[in-house]
Write a structure and sequence with these properties.
about 65% helix, mainly alpha, elongated, about 150 residues
Length: about 150
């Protein structure tokens, strides 16, 4: 620890986490709706081809980075810790989603998809937090060890 005491601002911390979470949800739902509207994804109720889960994984990962960046940017202190806390929320939700949809049939996609979301939750959060650190201190080394 650096010895610096930060004032407790639990409401601002919660707002930062919620802002990042809502960013991911809104962007993901928006992309899903847009891809359905243009005919790339099938309409609701229709199963997706397994190959379509790869682009869904990619854009959800990018949106996860964006949400973690926003969480870190809005954090009242310790931005990387806030970004990683958001990653833990994403990890828990991804695990719950994997458990809830496992062996529920082809409508829920291939097994690798929920596993990929679980595996990418924390690295995505770290990248978003790191991008925030880079934008706040442009000359800082990218792989510097973080102090929480």
């Amino acid at each position: 620890m650096s010895g610096t005491n930060f004032p407790r601002r639990p409401l601002r911390s919660a707002a930062a986490l919620l802002s990042g979470f809502f960013t991911v949800v809104v962007l993901s739902l928006g992309a899903d709706i847009a891809l359905r509207a243009v005919g790339i994804f099938p309409q609701l109720g229709q199963p997706m081809a397994p190959t379509l889960f790869l682009p869904a994984t990619v854009y959800r990962t990018v949106f996860g980075v964006a949400g973690s960046y926003i969480t870190a940017r809005l954090a009242p202190h310790r931005p990387m810790q806030h970004a990683l806390a958001g990653g833990v929320v994403g990890l828990v939700l991804s695990i719950a989603g994997a458990v809830a949809t496992w062996n529920r049939g082809p409508d829920f996609g291939p097994h690798w998809y929920p596993l990929a979301l679980v595996a990418l939750a924390m690295p995505t959060a770290w990248v978003g937090g790191k991008l925030n650190a880079i934008t706040q201190a442009p000359n800082a080394p990218i792989l510097r060890a973080e102090k929480f």
